[in-house]
Amino acid sequence: MMDWTDRHCRFFLRLITRRTLLYTEMVTTGAILHGDRDRFLAFDAAEHPLALQLGGSDPAELAACARIAEDWGYDEVNLNVGCPSDRVQNGRFGACLMAEPELVGRCVAAMREATALPVTVKCRIGIDEQDAYEDLLGFVDRVSGIGGCRSFTVHARKAWLQGLSPKQNREIPPLRYGEVHRLKRERPELEIVVNGGLLGLDAALEQLDTVDGAMIGRAAYQDPWCLAEADARVFGEAGPAPTRPEVVERLLPYLEARCAEGVPLKAMTRHILGLFNGLPGARAWRRQLSEAAHLPGAGPAVVERAAAELARRTEGLAA
Predict the structure, then answer these.
(1) Span 7-233: which CATH code?
(2) pTM for the full model?
(3) Over the range 195-229, which residues count as b (16 or more CB within 10 Å of their CB) and which as e?
(4) Regarding the domain delimited by 244-318, which CATH topology (the fold level of the hierarchy) does it fall under?
(5) Of 79, 112, 207, 269, which has the most beta carbons under 10 Å away?
(6) Which residues are known binding-site members for FMN?
(7) How is the chain split into domains, by residue range?
(8) From the candidates 83, 107, 123, 149, which is the catalytic residue?
(9) What is the mean pLDDT of each run of 10 residues along the chain (319 residues)?
């Protein structure tokens, strides 16, 4: 999710779940090949397993980025052909590429030739008037046939490339999970992961009866604690999940290290505002972080104070 799942967000989420596969923001090939690679690619070793999500349409450039992803230590490379924003379309990548399955297949083939990492594709169920199930099946067949892709993450909404904003494209086109389920039935040899409208772990687990995986996006950002039971309920790991105060305590050394490098505290605390959602004191937690994290010289003490205040409020209510 562009501007959301940066390295600071991912490190925080990894403190909640050890096994869930995390994705980077979509990074364009141009940004990697011609920009600041450390800015776009750097991550903490604790973030594994981690997939790099790429945006692009030139097979040679995507192949070069796939090699770079392997060199940097990523676990997977994902080609995004599902993002519907105007900026993405103008760059000829994202959802508009669903109209060019042969090109997507060539891109995937070049990427697979360049790296030993798994190469996956994220798409929609359709775009514009090309939204029949047969269009989705044809796209998947051509990309898997030409490119050898064996794993597709399918957002269960079509995208309107003209007339709807990216936000509207996440809300207005109806969810059609049945078509993703049918795709898995008719192409059982492929890994099919469903995305779109999943509001938490329970909703994701329901999907696993039919498909191979489920991707939770904005719901996990807004209520990150929905991932706290993923290791046990999805991956069968024994042992208790960490508590929210424990997550805060484990995050503090990371905040200290990044602040020492010059990263503004607010760039990191914006990702943890929803940690205590639904609990007494959650509003005060969000307010204190929002008001203090942007101040000059703000550091981890801001988070410590907010956590202490939340604990005080909680203890008062319990008493």
Answers:
(1) 3.20.20.70
(2) 0.92
(3) bbbbeebeebeebeebbbbbbbbebbbebbbbbbb
(4) Four Helix Bundle (Hemerythrin (Met), subunit A) (1.20.120)
(5) 79
(6) 53, 122, 155, 195-197, 217-218
(7) 7-233, 244-318
(8) 83
(9) 86 97 96 95 97 97 98 98 70 84 98 98 94 96 98 95 79 92 98 96 96 95 95 91 94 97 97 94 94 95 95 61
